[in-house]
Structure prediction request, 306 residues.
Amino acid sequence: TSVTLIGVPLEEGSGRRGASMGPTALRIAGIATMLTELDHRVTDSGDLHPAPAADLPDDPKAHHLKIVGAFTRALEAKVYDVASSGGFPLILGGDHSLSMGSVSGMARYAAEVGRPLFVLWLDAHSDFNSPATSPSGNIHGMPVAYFCGQAEIANVLPAGRPLVDPKKVFQVGIRSVDPHEREQIREHGVNVFDMRSLDEQGVAVIMRRVLDTVSAANGLLHVSFDVDFIDPDIAPGVGTTVPGGATYREAHLIMEMLSDSGLVSSLDLVELNPFLDDRGKSARVLVEMAASLFGRRIFDRPTRAA
Ligand code: DIR
Ligand code: MN
Ligand code: MN
Ligand code: MN
Prediction:
């Protein structure tokens, strides 16, 4: 695979500083070397540094909209370009508001090639708020609603842009949902596998269902990996830790099954906050996770009968 790294030093969508250092930490933790060792071709396109969008309003219900909106536009265009030229966009975040751009860019690409886009959202949070429902006003709690067309946030991207069908969004690891978010998720039919269902069914059963659905529809699959999906004991370097997250092995198994499927088109690694990390531990964990998704194995497996 030809992988293009896209650094997104964005932190204004979250409630605190530090996530802007995420792309640098992931590079120092060896993301490019890891990919090269797995025989991928790697291009590092550097970091996006858009100027704040002067046409966007200051909105007390959507904090730092001018800069978050500028990153959304720049990343949407960049991801679309990379995917259109046959590359795999690997987005180094940056807070989760960046997925308004990455997923919208993939939605435009998917529409153009006539395939449905599915999204696997690995997160403690469902990120389905809108400016109207958000208790915090932080845009990193809104990206899923945004790319599903359920959170109008000024004129960030043009009206009529390709959207993601909420029924094609699979959320795994969820354990923190705001009251209005819960209603919206139910109403729009987002597929939620919360931590309880993960405990009860195990990740392998859940992932089979997800992958069989994507495969049967000949879909593209965008994976959005929020550090807080993993238990904070393993990955403490994130601003919004929630106890009771996925274990190291559960997270790896998901990545290994994604790799085997060959369905993944694009990946976000988000919410890493090196300022809160423990000697680079969480950055290294994220690189390990990406390694499994890009083909690293303990042993080869026989391929599953079709
Ligand atoms: C909370 C926290 N639901 C909010 N969200 C996120 O502010 O909307 N924390 N994404 O990581
Ligand atoms: Mn920079
Ligand atoms: Mn998130
Ligand atoms: Mn989260």
